[in-house]
Write a structure and sequence with these properties.
The protein contains 17 helices and 26 strands. By secondary structure, the chain is an alpha+beta fold. It folds into six domains: 130 residues, Rossmann fold; 155 residues, Topoisomerase I, domain 2 (Orthogonal Bundle), CATH 1.10.460; 136 residues, Topoisomerase I, domain 3 (Distorted Sandwich), CATH 2.70.20; 114 residues, Topoisomerase I, domain 4 (Orthogonal Bundle), CATH 1.10.290.10; 41 residues, no CATH class; 40 residues. Strands 7, 8, 9, 12, 13, 14, 15 and 16 form an eight-stranded antiparallel beta sheet that branches. A four-stranded parallel beta sheet has the order 2-1-5-6, with helices on both faces. The protein is globular, with a radius of gyration of 30 Å. It starts with 6 loop residues before the first strand and ends in a 5-residue tail after the last strand. The model has no long low-confidence stretch (mean pLDDT 92).
Length: 660
Amino acid sequence: MRDMKKTFLIVESPTKAKTIGRFLGSDFEVMATMGHMRDLPKSKMGVDLDGDLAIDYVTDGAKKKTVSDLVSKAKKSDVIVLATDPDREGEAIAWHVQQLLEISKIQIPSTKIKRAVFHEITKTAIDEALNNMGKLDMNLVDAQQARRVLDRAVGYTLSPVLWKKVRRGLSGGRVQSVAVRLICEREAEIGKFSVEKYFMVISKFSGFEAELKSIDGKKVLTTNKIKLFDGDYSFTVGLFKTEKEAREFVDSLLDKFTVSKVTEKDSKRSPLPPFTTSKLQQAAFRVFGWSGKQTMSVAQKLYEKGLITYHRTDSVYLSSKAIDEFRNYIGKTYGVNYVASKVRVFANRSKNAQEAHEAIRPTRAEVLAESVGEAREAKLYSLIWKRAVATQGASAVMKRSTIELTNNKAIFEARGVRMIFDGFLKISGEKLEDVVLPVLKVGEELTAKKVEIIEKETNPPPRYTDASLVSSLEKQGIGRPSTYAPIISTIIARMYVERDEGKFKPTSVGMATNEFLVKNYLDILSLPFTAEMEEDLDEVAQGKLDWKKMIKGFWKGFSAETKKIEKEADRVKIETEKTGEKCPECKEGDLVIREGRFGKFISCSRFPECKYSATLKEKVDFKCPECGADAVIKRTKKGRKFFGCSAYPKCKWASWKKPN
C-alpha cells in the first residue's frame, strides 16, 4: 500500500476525515462526503413497486460540488478507498459513492475502487484495514436498500390514507407507527388501572428499622400481574386495605419483639457487560436525562475523534486486545487484586446481533474523561469508559445480613449490607451505602421506639421514557442500533407524542391516528409482524434472502389491503377538548383545544368554516418564581416544551425544568 503513488480515501464526515488524516502520510488524500449523496426523490415514490423494483435515486442538489470534487480527485488517484462506517448504512453510502464514480463522465472503473472496514479510528485499526481491503458487501447494501424501500412504500402509501381518514398533513411510518402504538396502548392501560391504597407497618428500634413481612404465615405484601401489549407488568399490593385494619394490628402487638432468626452470608456482584447502542441510550437517559438523539450525536463525535469504537452495535463482544489492555490498566492503576481472576467474556443475548461488531468501548484505556475537551463528550466518554474497563475488574464482595423479629404471630424483617471488597465498583464509580445492623442473638428481646403506619398505593404501569421505549423495542426485536434514536425523533416531530417531564404521552392526533391504523392495519402494527420484517432484513444482510422477493411479498398484500381501506374504512375523529367559551369571531362555534405543528392552540369548532385561532396558555400548578404570576407551558419552534411566565414580556423567566 505505501508504494502507491496516490490513494484517495473517502469517509462521511469532516471530523472523521481529520482524525484519519493524522495517521496517514502525504501519499493519501482524505475527503468527506458530508453524509448521504443520493437518496429517493422527495416528491414521488421513486420505486417501481409493481414492476421490477427499479429505484430512481437522485443526487442531492446541495452535493453537486462535492460530487464534482470527488470525481476530480478520484481521477487523479491510483487507488480509491471507500472507508465509510462499518454497518449497513455505511456500506450503502460507499455503494452510492462507487455508483457516482462509475456513472461520471470519466467513468472510473470499479477495479480502482476498494473497501476498507474498521470499527475504531486508531492507527493500528486503519493500517490493518488498508492491508486487508476488499470489495463492497452487496448483501449489506441490499439490506439497507430493502429497509429504505420498505419504509418508503409504507410511508408514501399510508400518508394519503391518513389525510383522507384522519387529518390533512399526517404521515405514517412502518416502525414509527408501532412505537406510537406502544405509547397509546400504555396510556390506555394507565387509564384502566384502578389505583388502590394499602398500608405498611414499620417498627423502629435503636439504630435500625424492620418491616412487617407476615402475620400467622400470611405475607403482608404480594405481587399482582397484569398483561400489557408488550409484556407483563408486576405491581405490589398490601394486606391492609384501610388504616383502621393496620391500626388494629398495631394495637394487638406486644411490648416486646423477640429475635427469632439471624443470618449472615457473603454475596458477590459482577460487572455488567459493556454498552450496546440501546443500553448506552438507556443509561444516558437515566444518568443525564438525554434523548437518544442527543446521546447518538455525542457518541458520533467521540467515534470520529478516535476515542471510542463504533457506536452503532448490538454486540457485547470485546476483542482480546481490548481485554488485555483493560486488565493491564486495572492492575497498574488499582492493584492486581482488582483484576478479575479469569478473563470475563459476555455472550450476545440479542438474536439479532448484526455483523461482527464489538461493544462500545474506549479505544485506549489510558485516555481518561478529564482529557476529553467538550463537557458533554467527557460525560458520555466517562460513562462508556467506566462500563467497559470495569468488565475486567474483580467481583465486589458484600456481607448481607438479615434479622427476623417475632411479635404475636407477626414477623418483622430488617436487612443490612456491608462492603467487604469493592472490586469493580472502584472502577465504575458506583457507590454502595452500608446498612449496618446491630449484633443480636436469637432469643433477645427488644422494645420498639415507635411503630409507624405508612400509607402506600398501587402504581399503574409507568409511561414510557426514552430508556424504557428503546428497551421495549429491543426486547420485541423491533428496530436496530441505527434506528432507535430516529424512531423517537420522528414520532415527536410529527406531534404523535409529546414529552411530559421526561415521559411520553400520546397527543389527541397520535391517539386518533393509532386508532385508525390499528383498526385497519392490525397486521403491520403487530409486534410479531414488525419483528419478523426486521428478521427478514437480517437475512438479506446475511445473503439468505433476496431483497426484491421480500419487498414484493409484502407489497402485494399491503397495496391490495390499502385500496380496500381507502374505499371502505370510516373516518376517525380527533377528540378535542372544549374550553367552555364561544368563538368571539363567529359567535356560533365552541372554542376547542387543538394540536398543531407547534403544540396546542385554541380554535373554533366550526373550522374550516371559521378560521379563528389563538395562542393557548397551558397553566401549571405553580407560580413564576421571579414575579409570582401564573406559570405556563410554552413551546419552541421545534415543539419542545418549556416553562415560562404568563406575564411575558414583562417577566422573562423561563426554564426547561419545573422548579422545586
